[in-house]
Design brief:
- By secondary structure, the chain is an alpha/beta fold.
- 33% of the residues lie in helices and 24% in strands.
- It is built from eight helices and seven strands.
- Strands 1-2-3-5-4-6-7 form a seven-stranded mixed beta sheet, sandwiched between helices.
- The longest helix has 15 residues, at 81-95.
- The termini are far apart.
């Protein structure tokens, strides 16, 4: 019997999000449960990965991860996204309990094609914030409003959040999800993403330490 006893279609009633289905997803570190949700207003499809009994009322080890096709699937070294996703999944598997929310918010909300355009501008010398702005976008267009119905679907109200982004902590707190602990996720600083990470720290407030 699977432990996600709360994962039933009737538990998600928000008109902003529609629960679709749940299945097993064997991964290199553990067999997670994969929960699919549709967002009618945008047509986007979002995912939640869970492991163990996360609906027991105790704080849950969690990662809210915005889609990054280049980093998550194509192993790009221009960012730390893929490494953060893998590290979060490994940590949850080690603990035997946790969730990863996989939100379709590519390029901090500007979409895949515009992210590639932004990369081209970065190749020309712009930083990650300047590139978005040169394309006419704000530095970060992401929204975390859907996290609450996704987490409530599994009975989660308190999280131990794996993130370097204090804005993400604030966003969850504002929608009623209590962040009882912020766990740093410092991984994969390399010659290709050092400037990107430094810009996130300097201009977006991410808590990323310098390296000597």
């Amino acid at each position: 019997m699977h432990s996600d006893i709360h994962a039933l279609p009737v538990t998600t009633t928000s008109t902003d999000l529609v629960y679709t289905a749940t299945c097993d997803l064997p991964m290199p570190w553990a067999t997670f449960r994969l929960h699919a949700f549709a967002e009618p207003a945008t047509g986007k499809e979002h995912l939640l990965l869970s492991l163990g009994d996360v609906g027991d009322g105790e704080p849950v080890l969690a990662r809210v991860h915005s889609e990054c096709l280049t980093g998550d699937a194509l192993f790009s070294q221009r960012c730390d996204c893929g490494a953060q996703l893998e590290s979060a999944l490994r940590a949850i598997a080690h603990e035997g309990r946790g969730v990863v929310l996989y939100l379709r918010q590519e390029g901090r909300g500007i979409g895949l094609l515009n992210k590639i355009r932004a990369y081209a501008l970065q190749d020309g010398g712009a930083d990650t914030v300047e590139a978005n702005q040169q394309l006419g976008f704000a530095a970060d267009l992401r929204s975390y409003a859907l996290c609450r119905p996704m987490l409530e679907h599994l009975g989660v109200r308190q999280v131990r959040l794996m993130t370097n982004n204090p804005r993400k902590v604030d966003a969850l707190q504002q929608i009623g999800i209590e962040v009882v602990e912020r766990i740093p996720l410092i991984v994969n600083r390399n010659p290709f993403n050092t400037a990107y990470l430094d810009t996130k720290a300097a201009k977006l407030g991410h808590m990323i330490p310098d390296v000597e």
